[in-house]
Design goal:
There is one protein chain. The protein has about 550 residues and is mainly beta. The chain is built from three helices and 40 strands.
């Protein structure tokens, strides 16, 4: 059996580009060839198909094809841009998006790295971001805690065009896209790259030096989808890691990519998503010499049988393959758009095995100062990050979803809400029985009784009852004025690490008002920019308009 496609009820008014899953359940979507970002939020029933759009803050410069990832504190990092508004090819500039403040902040450029562009990258289990060099084997790591870069071990071959896949043993496997077309593994603990041998089949198109997506599956093995036509078919190869992090792994042949209409299908520059049923949804297109094919076709890889089959295509599959973007939703569905204003959602058949689910061990409230309602909750459990990064592409896009989300369903109204999660104990995958944790906040969620579950990679834990109660009367009512003033004075004198908040007004109302004001500010800013662009076109806008035209990507 195969899944089905549905169109968004409220299609975007802009052409979509790269998509990320925010930790409050919204899908953050870049507007193609602009600095603009938008968010798709599910409706009251939790449906993304019927979701609604809002505008987010603009980033500093527009960019496409870049290193990226979700940080442990719930912020999003973006570095580089093969094409961009910086006036250069392969910019080295980066910035971080804070979804709470709805702001972008520039970060230092990597020292000695004039080019970053579409660098291969991976968020390490400890939350740092590692990127690889376009022109040589150098690697460098950004630490969001110190806001600084440090050099990492050097690869044997430059990382340009590679697909990096994080493994459960805290290593990264990366087939080489340049001669001698072997594979390398990065051992994080020892900061060392080692050779892992040649894949069992030709994965890289030697003319374009492109490869397809890779995916760590629930079997524990990792499949890579190939870009080359070998004997008239596209190939795949499956990697099995060694017994220890430093032990050499092995490669085995995967299934051939099915032909469509007698045409050879390949996966040069394509997204893939790990479905809750264990299969991998991946895109492909006709093989063309030194080019990307169209239309875009869809396939499912079944790791249990090591087979691959074509599945129905959506109606919006008309563009070239490398425009494809997918996002694995918390519902287990997959959102797809090839950089157009037509977004389709794939609903797979079947569900997960019990062993793949995250579990909840404890939920502990933490309260500070005068406040009678918790400042945050600490959730502990197992497999909170899932068993895989689950949503991949390669060097142009790294939209992994391996972090916990909190979904809450009101037991009276059945309305669905997502709390904001942050401070993940790890960004690793398949952490087994090890106890992991995250924090979550409820300031934008109505009071009431809920069924609460934790979700990782579209797979939900079993839910448990959770009461989100209205706070009791303020502290000063039950305490004398002397004690209140002494306590307040102590907080002011020592400095309030929690940004002293109004403890009389309902915090839910305050947060909602702030969100509405911020969205209104974003709308006004967009209108002002449009008015300014019509009155006096700027060089930057002309560059963006020119770059938005479909054309072959730059190859270093």
């Amino acid at each position: 059996m195969a899944g089905t496609w549905s169109a968004l009820t409220h299609q975007p008014t802009f052409n979509t580009s790269t998509m990320f899953l925010l930790t409050d359940g919204r899908i953050m979507v870049n507007e193609e060839a602009t600095t603009h970002w938008h968010a798709l939020a599910p409706d009251d029933s939790g449906s993304y198909v019927n979701g609604t759009w809002s505008e987010l803050a603009d980033m500093g410069i527009w960019r496409r094809y870049y290193a990226s990832g979700m940080l442990k504190d719930g912020r999003l990092i973006i570095v580089g841009g093969e094409q961009n508004g910086d006036g250069v090819i392969d910019t080295n500039k980066g910035e971080i998006y804070d979804p709470v403040a709805d702001t972008w902040t520039a970060i230092p450029t990597p020292p000695g790295w004039p080019l970053v562009g579409d660098a291969s990258s991976c968020i390490l289990p400890d939350g740092r971001l590692m990127i690889g060099g376009l022109l040589d084997g150098r690697c460098i790591i950004y630490n969001p805690t110190t806001n600084a870069w440090t050099n990492a071990a050097t690869k044997a071959i430059r990382a340009n065009e590679e697909t990096w896949i994080l493994q459960p043993d805290d290593t990264i496997i990366a087939p080489q896209c340049w001669s001698p077309f072997q594979s390398e593994k990065y051992v994080i603990a020892s900061d060392a790259w080692q050779n892992e041998g040649a894949p069992a089949a030709t994965l890289v198109d030697p003319v374009m030096n492109e490869i397809g997506a890779g995916m760590l599956c629930y079997t524990g093995r990792t499949i890579f989808f190939g870009s080359a036509s070998v004997g008239g078919v596209g190939k795949t190869s499956v990697y099995s890691r060694g017994a220890t992090a430093t032990a050499t792994g092995s490669w085995a042949a995967g299934p051939d990519i099915p032909t469509v209409g007698g045409q050879t299908m390949v996966c040069n520059d394509c997204p893939a998503s790990l479905l809750p049923n264990g299969k991998v949804l991946v895109t492909g297109a006709q093989f063309l010499n030194n080019d990307w094919g169209n239309p875009i076709h869809f396939f499912e890889y079944n790791p249990a049988t090591n087979t691959m089959a074509a599945v129905p295509d959506p109606s919006n599959n008309v563009k070239k393959l490398y425009w494809s973007r997918q996002m694995l939703l918390p519902t287990g569905q997959v959102m797809f758009s090839p950089s157009t204003n037509n977004v389709q959602v794939y609903t797979p058949d079947g569900g997960p095995q019990e062993a793949w689910r995250p579990t909840i061990t404890a939920i502990t409230p933490h309260t500070f100062g005068f406040f009678t309602s918790p400042d945050y909750y600490l959730l502990q459990g197992t497999q909170l990050n899932g068993l895989s990064q689950a949503n991949t592409y390669g060097d142009d896009c790294q939209p992994g979803t391996n972090y916990p989300l909190i979904r809450m369903t009101d037991t009276s109204t059945h309305h669905v809400f997502y709390a904001r999660t942050y401070d993940f104990s790890t960004m690793g995958v398949a952490t087994g029985a090890a106890l992991q944790s995250c924090r979550f906040k409820l300031f934008d969620i109505p009071y009431g009784n809920y069924d609460l579950c934790v979700i990782a990679n579209g797979i939900s834990s079993h839910c448990q009852a959770f009461a989100h109660n209205r706070p009791n009367k303020p502290y000063f009512i039950d305490h004398g004025l002397k004690e209140v003033f002494e306590h307040y004075g102590k907080i002011v004198f020592e400095g309030d690490p929690f940004k002293w908040r109004d403890w009389v007004v309902d915090p839910v109302d305050v947060v909602r008002l702030k969100q509405q004001v911020k969205q209104l500010q974003n709308s006004v800013n967009r209108l002002n920019s449009l008015i300014g662009a019509k009155q006096l076109p700027r060089v930057g806008q002309e560059v963006a308009n020119e770059a938005s035209k479909e054309k072959p990507k730059h190859t270093e």
